[in-house]
Amino acid sequence: MKLHFLYKNVLIQILTLSLIFALPIYFFGIKDREDYDLGLFSSKVIFENLNLFIFFYDLYGPGIKFPVGQGLFFHPFIIFTKNISLFFFLTIFTHILIQINYFLKLLKQFKIKNNNFIIVILVIFSISNFNYIYSDDWLSLFVTYTFLFVSFYYWNKVIFKRTNISFIQFILSTSFMILNGHSGLAFIYLIFFILYFLFNFNYSIIKNKLTYLFIFFFFNFSWRVYFLVN
Question: What is the extent of the structural domain holding 175?
Fold first, then answer.
């Protein structure tokens, strides 16, 4: 993945502002218990057992359906869950960089001129980031929001450039968002992608075999929604 902002000479500014935003999490932690006791608990169990396919956990009360909550169940950073502060800091810091990188790419995609430094500030200190990190302390929402930038960028490439590699990138980024994010928020984003497609309808997508691969992946990942409603 090429970092778009490396070519704009604002990397130091981005790193500095991202650290300013993320460091309080490292030193003071977060306050909401729900993500700790549900989603994060499930992520730790998955990592400690090195098993991605645990569907029942009998060491919690009389036994529970598993996983519980909304968590980063398949996220590579779960290897750091033994140090919660480090886990949250690394996740927040790297995902902010992803947000900036793909937002700048989106602006370039839509041919929107911008002041990079102002854009960086607006993205890092956006109301969504404050809400998901400092207010609700819900990391799964933050990850879902981050990958909206990624998936939307590749969805645009699918619709307007019609390349197979873009379709594969969209499938992978959306799958990662669903598996490691919040099912409810991911569902809203999927509706947005569908509506955006309808308003920019491209018949060639219907004829593309990868379209049906995406549908296959979508239904295979729908078990997340099943756990949400049951």
Answer: 4-229
CA distance 113 to 213: 36
CB atoms within 10 A of CB 182: 26
Residues 160-214: pLDDT tens digits?
Answer: 887 778 888 988 898 889 888 888 888 889 889 888 887 776 655 566 666 666 6
The Cα 169–Cα 174 span in angstroms is 8
Cα Rg for the chain, rounded, in angstroms? Answer: 18
For the stretch 93-115, pLDDT in tens is 889 989 988 998 999 898 888 77
Q: Long-range CB contacts (< 8 A, 24+ apart) of 89-94?
A: 89/22, 89/23, 89/25, 89/26, 91/139, 91/142, 91/143, 92/21, 92/22, 92/25, 92/133, 92/139, 92/142, 93/18, 93/19, 93/22
Tokens linked to 42: 């499930």
How many structural domains is the chain composed of? 1
